[in-house]
Design a protein that fits this description.
With 291 residues, this protein is of the alpha+beta class. It has 6 helices and 19 strands. It has helices spanning 39-52, 64-74, 140-145, 149-155, 165-175, 225-239; strands at 4-6, 17-20, 27-30, 36-38, 54-57, 94-97, 120-127, 135-139, 159-162, 182-183, 186-187, 194-197, 199-201, 208-210, 217-220, 245-248, 255-259, 263-267, 277-283.
């Protein structure tokens, strides 16, 4: 099944029927078919994603090919993952399978351990457990804006290191024998840590947001280990306050889109030995910019 294109509409604001899940964070989009999108709807989804940061679409009949086709209409689809073998799915797809240690049960933003992290992720439910397995998203812009003015001014100046070796180093060395996938035109052979600003300016909205996450951020540059841990613990606790989080209960046919430039997410691992399989694609992003 593939995505088809129709003529664009004149007013993209009229293209979507959505229900807000909060004043500025999270929305469910109704009455839309990802396999039959007008150009105006594609543009409206992009704009809604910048505003609401995570969008949920129910009752979508899509396979891997349709998911990839939809991603290509939103932007430039990357490899599914810098180091993970795609296995029996297309190379653009990253299969998160609980039977292959695919859990994502730590707060993270996708692939921040590269120089140019993905801008957008698109995730669909393939196989769901009978209970549990919800996903949570945190609004990093709201979290930044609700910090005290003094702390905002301080973190505006900071840089942090993001390191993928803690999560994927063993996999790359042992299972892939030091040869990963092509990402940004180069084959991944080593997970070299990169530096990103602690506060990131969104390239489309101009809003500031926290850009650190427990999954891949190792430390803050230029401070002691104790200061780094204290700062990051404060930011993580603030980022994941309930007021900053939206939670999604998955159903078959669900697709979620989120803006990696303004969110972090966490998949609940509360379904015992039952299986949970999700397929994700990512869209090429830009180099994070400091205030």
């Amino acid at each position: 099944m593939t995505v088809t294109s129709e003529q664009p509409a004149t007013d993209v604001r009229a293209e979507l029927n959505l229900t807000r899940l909060g004043p500025r964070f999270g929305a469910e989009v109704h009455d839309i078919d990802l396999t039959r999108l007008r150009d105006g709807q594609v543009q409206a989804l992009r704009e809604a994603l910048v505003e609401h940061k995570v969008l949920f679409l129910r009752d979508q009949d899509v396979d891997d090919a349709a998911q990839i086709d939809f991603g290509r209409r939103l932007g430039e689809v990357t490899a599914g993952h810098p180091v993970h073998d795609s296995g029996d799915v297309p190379p653009e797809v990253y299969a998160v399978d609980s039977q292959d240690n695919g859990f994502a049960d730590i707060w993270h933003t996708d692939v921040t351990f590269v120089r140019r992290p993905p801008a957008i992720s698109v995730l669909r439910a393939v196989e769901l457990p009978p209970y549990g397995g919800d996903t949570n998203w945190a609004d990093s812009q709201l979290a930044y804006e609700s910090l005290s003015p003094g702390l905002r001014a301080h973190v505006d100046t900071l840089t942090a290191v993001h390191d993928g070796s803690r999560e994927f180093g063993y996999y790359l060395a042992q299972r892939r024998k030091g040869r990963g996938n092509v990402w940004e035109g180069e084959t991944f052979t080593d997970l070299v840590p990169v530096e990103h600003p602690v506060v990131r300016v969104h390239p489309e909205s101009g809003r500031k947001g926290l850009f650190v996450n427990p999954g891949f951020t190792s430390h803050v540059v230029g401070v002691s280990a104790e200061e780094s841990r204290g700062l990051l613990d404060i930011l993580y606790a603030h980022l994941t306050k309930p007021e900053h989080v939206v939670r999604h209960r998955w159903r078959r046919g669900d697709v979620a889109l989120w803006d990696n430039r303004s969110t972090a997410h966490y998949a609940n691992r509360d379904y015992g030995d039952t299986r949970r399989v999700m397929h994700r694609i990512t869209l090429r992003g830009d180099i994070p910019t400091a205030p």
